[in-house]
Amino acid sequence: MGTGKLKRTLSEEINESLVDSDFNLKGWVMHYRDHGGLIFIDLRDYAGIIQIVFDENISAESFNTAKKIKNEYVISVEGKVKIRPEGTENENLKTGKIEIEVKKIEILNECEVLPFQIEEESDINELIRLKYRYLDLRRKKMKDNLIFRSKFNFLIREFLNKNGFFDIETPFLTKSTPEGSRDFLVPSRLNNGNFYALPQSPQLFKQILMVSGFEKYYQIVRCFRDEDLRADRQPEFTQLDMEMSFIEQKDIMSLSEEMFALIFDKLLNIKLNLPIKIMDYDDAMESYGSDKPDIRFEMRLKTVSDIFGGSSLNVFRDCLSKNGVIKAICFKNGSNLLSRKDIDELVTVIKDFGGKGLAWTKVGKAEQRPKPAPFTNSSLLTVSAQGCKLEGGIAKFITEEEEKILIDRLEAENGDIIFYQADEKKVADTVLGRLRLYLAKKYNLIPESKFEFLWVVNFPLFEYSEEEKKIVAIHHPFTAPNEEDIKLLDTNPLMAKSQSYDLVLNGEEIGGGSIRIHKTELQEKIFEILSIKPEDARLKFGFLLDALSFGAPPHGGIAFGVDRVLMLVKNVDSIRDVIAFPKTQKAQCPLSDAPSHVRSEQLRELGIKLIEKDKLI
RNA sequence: GGGGCUGUAGUUCAGACGGUUAGAACGCCGGCCUGUCACGCCGGAGGUCGCGGGUUCGAUCCCCGUCGGCCCCGCCA
Fold first, then answer.
1. Average pLDDT in the A403-415 region?
2. Fold match, A11-109 / A125-275+555-617
3. pTM over 0.90
4. Which nucleotides of B are covered by protein (CB under 7 A)?
5. How far apart are CA A107 and CA A417, in angstroms?
6. Which of A85, A158, A415, A453 has the least CB density, counted as fewest CB within 10 Å?
């Protein structure tokens, strides 16, 4: 007996108004409850779950077939929609007020015993999840994530199409792009000894499309980087890549904002406050010790170098004499949250962050008490005008005057702890910035349900690389300097700021872009500063330089990390949970078993001979 | 390249000073059950304790190595 006269209906389409109508449903057996003379099945299709009932008095034949059913069998049933008997409704199900009384059933496919249960509450080992990813993706959470992703992509395409953008594909088999990461290489059979590189991003091609006159380009595109993996890094990941001509930084920013506002509104029902806040790179580093500040909480870094000009503390004095800085953060209520042992452990943490040590003082309530005799070693000496005093740690090296200004500047109150870092500016900033995040995470200072966007702008154009002993580009070598900084290129290029912008969400960089250089002369000057020889530039990306010389319009763009945005928005811990078929930390795919050996003929065709790694020169 | 956590039944986890037969829950198999919904009840099967070596009378447990998974640093926008 088969089903099939009726058109298939999805579980979500069935409701109480359809009582006594006949429907055909197809799907997977989620739960199977055999009560002897009555069998219940929770049938799952992609849209949801509905209960179906087999009663031997309604259809003995169906009932007998149903006896053979096990979990995850694929079935097709025909039956009537019935209101459930009073008292047997299931409030946890959208379809919990009704059920399907089955008249006909067909088993479309059976299912082996599962390696893990589909709706297991506890976390299954990720290796097993990935090996049986098709089963993992049957789980509601994973399915929801991927369906959300699909809607997200659709909304973006719709929005950009409405705004005059063209979706144009760019090659995957291409030439190494000038961004910093390691390329995935693809050997060429027709050109033995030569290799394609998979694109780290479509950077050069999208600029060339601007030269071609498309004016507005976008692509939701795979990018490849052969670097070590992290929870938020996969070797292949997806960017929303955009480029526009005759445009300025503020236009790209406001378009991006509009797009995110639409996404948050339509998909999450959250209204974003536009415009998104903008912060200078320098301010971000100064106040948050990071170029991607998490502004969901305060605890800003403060420079206190001036206070300690004449400090009796050797570490501080030495640091200042070497042109270093002293920075501090105030950890609200830290004295109560942290034991002495916790504080000591933070010193180890700080060293992992690259700091030399960690100075601290507790903030206590000042008491009216007689001043101790001079030359005592008590740390309870000082009393500030704010009714607070510093105690413990380095307090004994801090004068009353210093204390007063410190407490003021850090807005410290009774019960707080102040942490200090004395080092060269960049180190002090980043170390304290990381401590800020560490403490916030550990002591739950971050409002989890909040979404805080932030633009970080005015990045330096260059930085000096100690490793390479030369000036390198912060963004990429096609980033345009700020107009007013062009003159600095000849005098002090490291001071020049660029027309670039990063979009940060909850302390994670989710996108970045820049206005590009569209004049050959300026581009050549940049190469010169980067010590890239003209012949090397030609070799690597001569085709872009050529293109720029044929009437390139002013242009710029931005790219967003789709996986990361989805990870944040869906509040999952890893981008693997928003990617259908991700790889393990060793960049392997347990499902397909890639990467794998290839046949020797394949290698011969490619002119490739394998040698053992330790025999490499 | 480095640091941390981890690997015991199909799954999630217990476990022991180094000492009889390594446990639980869920799943699986068999049986019973007409209102369940993570159904229930009765019975049963299921283990190279990741792999290799060492110490020991004896190792799942201790030591060394190795492989895998996850998190992080380096690396990477």
1. 86
2. no
3. yes
4. 1, 10-13, 26-29, 32-40, 68-77
5. 67
6. A85
Report yes or no for ipTM above 0.90. Answer: yes
- Strand B and A463 CB separated by under 7 Å: no
Phi-psi region of A48 (alpha: psi -120 to 50; beta: other; left: phi over 0): left
Per-residue pLDDT, averaged over A461-469, amounts to 84
- Tokens 């991607």 found at: A292
Quick check: A67 CB within 7 A of strand B?
no
Superfamily (CATH H level) for A297-446: GAD-like domain (3.30.1360.30)
As given in the structure block, the two tokens for residue A451 are 């979404």
- Inter-residue contact A394 to A334 (CB < 8 Å): no
Residue A416 CA to residue A407 CA, distance in Å, equals 10
Sign of the CA dihedral A212, A218, A224, A225? positive
Nearest nt (C1') to A89 (CA)? B37
Number of Cβ within a 10 Å radius of residue A36: 6
Confidence class of residue A448 from pLDDT cuts 50, 70 and 90? confident
Q: Which amino acid is residue A136, in one-letter code?
A: D
Determine if strand B comes within 7 Å of the CB of A341: no
Measured CA to CA, the distance from residue A143 to residue A526 in angstroms comes to 47
Please state whether strand B lies within 7 Å of residue A215 at its CB atom: no
DSSP state letter for A507: T
Q: How far is CA A233 from the centre of its chain?
A: 8
A351 CB neighbour count, 10 Å cutoff: 13
Which residue type occupies A39?
Answer: I
Look-up: residue for tokens 């206005």? Answer: A515
- Is any atom of strand B within 7 angstroms of residue A4's beta carbon? no
Per-residue pLDDT at A13 exceeds 90: yes
Pairing type for strands A195-197 and A216-224 reads unpaired
Strand B and A12 CB separated by under 7 Å: no
The CA–C1' separation of A237 and B64, in angstroms, is 40
* Nearest residue to A3 via CA among A32, A34, A36, A43: A43
| pLDDT tens for each residue of A535-561 | 888 888 888 899 999 999 999 999 999
Reduced to 3 states, what is the DSSP secondary structure of residue A162? helix
Q: Does the CB of A90 sit below 7 A from strand B?
A: yes
Task: Give the CA diameter of chain A.
Answer: 101
Tell me the nt nearest to A291, Cα to C1': B77
- How far, in Å, is the CA of A207 from the C1' of nucleotide B48? 59
* CB atoms inside a 10 Å sphere around CB A86: 6
A194 touches strand B (CB under 7 A): no
Q: How far apart are CA A431 and CA A285, in angstroms?
A: 11
Between 2.40.50.140, 2.115.10.20, 3.40.50.2300, 3.40.50.300, what CATH number should domain A11-109 receive? 2.40.50.140
Sorted by where each begins, the domain ranges of chain A are 11-109, 125-275+555-617, 297-446
Give the CA A580 to C1' B65 distance in Å: 36
CA/C1' separation A347–B55 (Å)? 39
A426 CB less than 7 Å from any atom of strand B:
no
For domain A125-275+555-617, the question of CATH label 3.30.930.10 is answered with yes
Q: Distance (Å) from CA A157 to C1' B37?
A: 41
Would you say the C-beta of A13 is within 7 Å of strand B? no
